Amino acid sequence: MTDVTYDDQTGARFERARLTRASFEDVYLDGARFHDVDLRGASLRQVDLRGLRARDVWLEDVDITGDIGNVRINGVDVTPYVEAELDRIHPDRPKMRPTDPAGYREGWDVIERLWAQTVARARTFPPEQLHERVEGEWSFIETLRHLLFATDAWVGRALLGDPEPWDALDLPHDEMPDIPPVPRDRGARPSLEDVLALRADRMAMVRRVVDDLTEEALAGTTVPVLEPGYPESEPYAVTRILRTVLNEEWQHRLYAERDLDALAARVGGEGAGAAGAGAAGAGAAAVDG
Length: 289
Fold this sequence. Notes:
Layout: E1 72-73, E2 76-77, H1 79-89, H2 101-122, H3 140-159, H4 192-211, H5 215-218, H6 238-266
Antiparallel strand pairs: 1-2
């Protein structure tokens, strides 16, 4: 196996090359041309496919989860069908698109209710399984740690103005570069109860925000936090912040349920609670988190 790193091959031509089971990490293929290429069984994660044009392709047994828009298959934009079906499967999903303060309060009611069900289900699993990853995705504990980070970043910092709202267990998204003083301890293995105590505090913070939300506040923008951190020091629309938080909570619960399903299947159904809807057809990928 040959490792090629930090190598600029812009415009290079690969013909009759075998790259079976090759790994591409932080690779730029924008504007690339693929002709007579075998991608059977390929795995794509965190891949930007905007503007992709695929002709004369075989698209069978394909599983795609992501943020879609204007996706045309055989001349038909399938996006409205997908969105309508997701709303049918998940009747609470439209509540993640609120337009007024009451709608944000209702949306957070949904998040609290659904996460309570998922946490109750997670408690039926052996503690070590909650640190187990499924197909390279975050473990259940890591998912909760990431939501701590998302809440601290968008509500604690961007909305409420705390320049360093972080807890040591906050887990940023993998693609984010290290930004002091934001913590990133990938090796931490806290207990479920330790993480849930922090989650209760952060969810209560969001509850206070939405309960006090007014039309005037919702229409406003934030005052930039000038100290280093995440998100960047700039004004943000309050609607963007609150939509981001709802989206993060909604999507990551679906991911958590999907992975709990997989963990339960490994042991023949043990620990498979009834709360999960799974994440098949989860819809838009989490943004900004």
